[in-house]
């Protein structure tokens, strides 16, 4: 169950080239609490330091350091010699995630910087490296407890509290090198259209200026069978190619669609030629699927979709936000499927691209959610908007993603219920997201106080099914702000109302076993029987409410002090997974 281009640990599975080098592993590391590094030119003469294991942050045991106290600035150094694959090529340095503001020096020269803890970014370091001897890569990272930077579930106080956990500072995803020709494919945006049985490729090229004999070919296969081969001349930086995905040899079209039941993926290779010489080859894949809303129903491939989702925060005991391995990602997806869920809501985190790859391969639906700020001001608006507009294009090609969630529970927009400028901010993000991706639903403020939103999502941690049924028996009362959530919140912000959107209970449950440490939602239970009875009661009530289109249970695993997972934080089931599955599918 892999695509043709799959390579274990390759950090960007939808854009695969053969010449690359993984820079994870041991780096020199230093704290800089006095912020003396730049004036002291640590980028040229690195101070006495310790070793850190990248991509784990210093707060984690997996890093080899394991200090949870906040530090506002840290430095990294990596010494390396370029491999032979770099000869006569451009050298691109990729960072999949650095929290929060990263600055890069190569051999003592400043290269550039990036701000944002969740988006991937890259630098062309070709002018700064030497081929014949050792190179010094130096990275400084500035982080803070500021609530104006998108931080998701990272705490902004010295100690963890409520549902906020140890902060993440520095490099927390893979760092790697890629070796490419000057003329190359920079990116490809892939848009399926199942109604027309077409796929559209929007290419951004690099280094094509001054060349008049470039040709780009796309070779599409499905299950090793040829589907289509097309080409076009490259005469500008932005190119569009649209082609049919009907098999040239015929075959049943609907059996080729992507869905949880049949996660079919088309392999595609993009090959750039200069004359007859191949100068770039990128391997990728796509899924032919459609997510839409009609008459208050969510449709997948033009058929009704009932979503059985689980909340997934993506934390691990020894590595926090960083997956300890690719196998750990796969194990989580398999556990979710084993419990009868067909999807997940990735909560307050932009997950590793390999996780989305395996969701694509295994047919796991995903709601992709932005990490929240916790203040509203001009700085927070600018930081949030800039990073979200990086993330949406980076994740666009994954067929598993069926919903965008930029805001959650009014976090970062605390007065959205009545303050117009906060409402306008969420509207702006909704429309900017739609400008990049008009094909997926956008949930503007998951939980309550919606402004413009394609789905009405509600968070309700009522414990008993009979209480849920009593509260939700009258749909008109619920959607017209007649029911309060979280004691004082309502479905819509002032000035907004229900327009026939599908309704999903996107957080509920959170049942915890009896414990003196940690917390869950509502009363704790003392036995497996009590847990399953309460779980069946509330799940059954949601499924029995005819106007509700799906649900999202809180949550897959415990996370630090929050102990309401179906699994412990080290992934041990608290109740048999097959019993959860039986209730979910019953």
TrEMBL record:
The Swiss-Prot or TrEMBL record describes its family as follows: Belongs to the glycosyl hydrolase 2 family.
For this protein, the record's InterPro entries field holds: Beta-gal/glucu_dom_sf, Galactose-bd-like_sf, GH, GH2_Domain-Containing, Glyco_hydro_2_cat, Glyco_hydro_2_N, Ig-like_fold, Ig-like_GH2
One Pfam entry name: Glyco_hydro_2_C
Keywords attached to this entry: Glycosidase, Hydrolase
Q: Enumerate the Gene3D superfamilies for this protein.
A: Galactose-binding domain-like, Glycosidases, Immunoglobulins
Which protein, by its recorded name, is this? Beta-glucuronidase
In what residue span(s) does the Glycoside hydrolase family 2 catalytic domain sit? 292-582
Ranked from the top, the taxonomy reads: Bacteria, Bacillati, Bacillota, Bacilli, Bacillales
**Domain Glycosyl hydrolases family 2 sugar binding stretches:** 22-141
Question: Which positions fall inside the Glycoside hydrolase family 2 immunoglobulin-like beta-sandwich domain?
Answer: 183-289
